[in-house]
Design a protein that fits this description.
heterodimer; A: alpha/beta; Rossmann fold; five-stranded mixed beta sheet; 5 strands; globular; B: alpha+beta; Cytochrome-c3 Hydrogenase, chain B; four-stranded mixed beta sheet; 41% helix; 18% strand
Chain lengths: 164, 483
C-alpha cells in the first residue's frame, strides 16, 4: 500500500547519515506513537545490524534540535496525529519559518528553518505521522493505534532498507 | 453595547488558556479573566500505584519540566522511604539531584528567555507574529540564537548524564539516586568539546544578562511600568536565607518586604496554605491562610525567589542580585517584566552551581541510597523553573498511593496572572471597540512573564490553533477569527 502523501523510498543514499526522531508523550496514550515507533525501530536495526542510523526521542521538538538536523543528511520525524483517515502519512517537509502559534514546542518545519538560518544546512527532512485516537493520561495505547504503528513501522523499515 | 472579547488559546503558553475581557457600555474594562483548563486527572492516575513508581510516573505529567516533577515526587517518596525530609540523603545523592535540577533550570530558563521572551523584547509586542519567534531572533541576532541552542543542549546533556537519559529518566529513586557521574561524564560536562563546557555556559549567561540590561536601559519605562502591581511573594529559601532551588524552608514576604511566612517546614504546608475554588475557573486559587483569600494570594517563580531570598550563594549571580535589588532599594520588586531579569540571574546562578558541583568529588561517589523507617505520608517541594512545586502523597500498608495532591507553579500564580491580564486590559483596551493584534499580544506578554506551563504535553500534530471570539452582552458570538 502506498499511503497518501508518501514517496518512493529512494531519497536516501548509502553515505547518508540518517536520524529517526520520534516525539510525543508515552503517558498520554496514542500521543506516544512517535516515541514507540523509534523504540521498536532501534531494536530492529540492532537485530538486523543496520548501521548508519541514529535515533532520538523527546516530548516535543525544540530549538536545540536544529543542531541535530545540521549533523544529519536525512531526518525522519515521527509523530502522532489526530487527523486524517490513513493509518499513517509520510511526506517531505520544507522549511517554514513561522511558529507564532506553537507553544513551548516547535513544529518540524520550523526546526528545519532554524537549522537553515543558523547552520546554513538543509537536510532532507521527512515527517511520518501515525493516526492516534485517544489522548488521555494513561500508558496504554489503543488497539487501533497499535495497528497503525505496526503498519507505519513496516513501511519505514522498507524505506530504510531501500536506502542501505 | 457591552462586549465580551475572548482570546483562545494563549499562544506560546503550554496547554489551553483563554482570556475573556468584558467591556461595559462605555467601553471600559468591567472584568477580565484568564481561564485555564488545568489538568487534574493525573492525581487519580498515580493512585493505586506503588509509591516508588511516582517519580517516574509524574515525569509524564509535563513535557516541559519533567525533571521538576521527577524530583518533587522523589523528595516526597524519600520521606515515605524513611530517608528524611530533604537532609537525609548521602552527599553524592543530593549533589547528583541538585546537578540534575540546576541543569533543568538552566535549559528551561534559557528556552523561556531566548525562545519566548526575547522576540517580544527584540521586536516589540506590536511586531507581526511571523517575526516574534526564535527564527525571527535568529534572523536579527544570529549569535544570540546560536548561543540559545547550545545552552539548551548543554542543559539537556546535564539532565541526560544525571537522570540516565534525556527523557523518561530514572535517576532519582526513593532515598537517593541510581547512578552518579562517571569521571568521563563529569569531564565532558566540565571541560567538554568547545563550546559545550561549564565555563562557556557561565560566560554566555553573563552575555544574556548584559543583553537584557542593555535593553532595560533603553526601555526602562516599559520594563518598569508594564503590568506592575504589588503582591506577596513565596518560595523556598535555604535555612540561612540563601536562594536554593532544590531544598529549603517556605518563606513568604509581602509587597513591602515584611515576612508573612517565616521559614516553615513544607511538610506542614497544609497548615499555611489554602486553595480557593471559583466557579468560573477549573484552576484553584491558592492563598496564605494567615492573610485569608482576599489578601493572601502571592506570586511564585524567579521574581518571587529574588524577593524572598536574602542572598545568592554564588559570586557572579550575587553581584547581579545586588544590582537587581538596588533598583527597588532592597525592597521586593513587584514589576512584572523584571521577572525576565530575575530569570536570567537564575540562569547565571545555575551555570555557576553546575560548574561547582562538577568540581566536587562527591559527584562521582558510590554511596547512593539512604534507607530508614517507612512513613505513610510524604511531601516534596522544589523550586521548579516556574515556581514552587508541591507533591504530597499518602500510601497504605501495601505501599500503594491512596492520595496525591499536586500544587504546580502555574496554580500558585493563578491570581497574579489574572491581575496581570487586568492591568494590560485596562491600559490598552479601555475605550476600544475592537481588539487588535498588538492588544492581544500585550495580554500574552503579561502572561508569558510567568511562563505558565499547563500540564498539557499532548501535542498531536496540527492541533495548535489560535482562536479569537467576540461575544455580545447576550452571549451571542458576533465575531471569530482562527489562525
Amino acid at each position: 500500500m502506498t499511503p497518501p502523501g508518501s514517496s518512493s523510498p529512494s531519497a536516501g543514499n548509502k553515505s547518508s547519515r540518517i536520524l529517526i526522531y520520534g516525539y510525543g508523550n508515552l503517558g498520554r496514550q496514542d500521543d506516544g506513537l512517535g516515541v514507540a515507533l523509534v523504540e521498536a525501530l532501534e531494536q530492529w536495526a540492532a537485530m538486523e545490524k543496520i548501521s548508519g542510523l541514529d535515533f532520538d526521542s523527546n516530548y516535543q521538538l525544540n530549538a536545540e534540535d536544529a543542531l541535530a538536523l545540521a549533523e544529519h543528511d536525512v531526518v525522519v520525524f515521527v509523530d502522532a496525529t489526530a487527523e486524517g483517515d490513513a493509518p499513517f502519512v509520510f511526506r517531505r517537509l520544507e522549511a517554514h519559518a513561522t511558529i507564532a502559534f506553537s507553544t513551548h514546542a516547535m513544529a518540524p518545519e520550523s526546526v528545519l528553518a532554524l537549522c537553515a538560518e543558523l547552520y546554513s544546512k538543509q537536510p532532507e527532512v521527512w515527517l511520518l505521522t501515525i493516526r492516534g485516537l485517544a489522548w488521555e493520561p494513561a500508558a496504554a495505547m489503543t488497539p487501533a493505534a497499535h495497528a497503525n504503528l505496526a503498519a507505519a513501522l513496516a513501511f519505514l523499515k522498507l524505506w530504510l532498507q531501500a536506502t542501505q | 453595547m457591552s462586549k465580551k472579547i475572548v482570546i483562545e488559546p494563549v499562544t506560546r503558553v503550554e496547554g489551553h488558556g483563554k482570556v475573556t475581557i468584558h467591556l461595559d457600555d462605555q467601553g471600559n474594562v468591567a472584568q477580565s479573566r484568564l481561564h485555564i483548563v488545568e489538568f487534574r486527572g493525573f492525581e487519580r492516575f498515580v493512585q493505586g500505584r506503588p509509591y516508588w513508581e511516582a517519580p517516574v510516573l509524574v515525569e509524564r505529567l509535563c513535557g516541559i519540566c519533567p525533571v521538576s516533577h521527577h524530583l518533587a515526587a522523589a523528595k516526597a517518596v524519600d520521606v515515605i522511604a524513611g530517608a528524611g525530609t530533604g537532609d537525609g540523603l548521602t552527599p553524592t545523592a543530593e549533589k547528583i539531584r541538585r546537578l540534575m535540577h540546576y541543569g533543568q533550570m538552566f535549559q528551561s530558563h534559557t528556552l523561556h528567555f531566548f525562545h519566548l521572551a526575547s522576540p517580544d523584547l527584540l521586536f516589540g509586542y506590536d511586531a507581526p507574529p511571523e517575526q516574534r519567534n526564535v527564527i525571527g531572533v535568529a534572523l536579527a541576532n544570529r549569535e544570540l540564537a546560536t548561543q540559545a541552542v547550545l545552552m539548551r543542549k548543554y542543559g539537556q546533556e546535564v539532565i541526560a548524564a544525571t537522570a540516565g537519559k534525556k527523557i523518561h529518566g530514572t535517576g532519582a529513586i526513593p532515598g537517593g539516586v541510581n547512578k552518579s557521574l562517571t569521571i568521563e561524564e563529569r569531564d565532558t560536562l566540565l571541560k567538554g568539546r568547545a563550546p559545550l563546557n561549564a565555563d562557556k555556559m557561565i560566560a554566555w549567561s553573563q552575555g544574556a544578562l548584559a543583553f537584557f540590561k542593555d535593553y532595560y536601559k533603553k526601555n526602562k519605562a516599559f520594563i518598569d511600568g508594564f503590568s506592575q502591581f504589588p503582591s506577596n511573594h513565596l518560595s523556598l529559601v535555604r535555612k540561612d536565607g540563601a536562594l536554593d532551588l532544590y531544598h529549603g524552608v517556605l518563606r513568604a514576604v509581602d509587597a513591602a518586604g515584611k515576612k508573612i511566612l517565616n521559614d516553615v517546614d513544607y511538610q506542614d504546608y497544609l497548615s499555611h496554605l489554602r486553595e480557593e475554588v471559583r466557579s468560573w475557573s477549573y484552576m484553584k486559587f491558592p492563598f496564605l491562610k494567615i492573610l485569608g483569600k482576599e489578601k493572601g494570594w502571592y506570586r511564585v517563580g524567579p521574581l518571587a525567589r529574588l524577593n524572598t531570598a536574602d542572598f545568592i550563594p554564588t559570586p557572579l549571580a550575587q553581584k547581579e542580585f545586588e544590582a537587581f535589588k538596588a533598583v527597588t532599594g532592597g525592597k521586593p520588586n513587584n514589576m512584572c517584566m523584571h521577572t525576565h531579569w530575575a530569570r536570567l540571574i537564575e540562569v547565571l546562578h545555575s551555570a555557576e552551581v553546575i560548574r561547582d558541583l562538577l568540581l566536587d568529588s562527591d559527584i562521582t561517589g558510590t554511596d547512593l541510597v539512604t534507607k530508614g523507617k517507612w512513613q505513610p505520608v510524604g511531601v516534596g517541594v522544589i523550586e521548579a523553573p516556574r515556581g514552587t512545586l508541591m507533591h504530597h502523597y499518602r500510601v497504605n500498608e501495601d505501599d500503594l498511593i491512596t492520595m496525591a495532591n499536586l500544587i504546580v507553579s502555574t496554580t500558585h500564580n493563578n491570581e497574579p496572572m489574572n491581575r496581570a491580564v487586568n492591568c494590560v486590559a485596562k491600559a490598552m483596551m479601555t475605550g476600544q471597540k475592537e481588539i487588535t493584534e498588538p492588544m492581544m499580544n500585550a495580554v500574552e506578554v503579561a502572561i508569558r512573564a510567568y511562563d505558565p506551563c499547563l500540564s498539557c504535553a499532548t501535542h498531536a500534530y496540527g492541533q495548535m490553533p489560535l482562536e479569537v471570539s467576540l461575544y455580545d452582552a447576550t452571549g451571542k458570538l458576533i465575531s471569530q477569527r482562527r489562525k
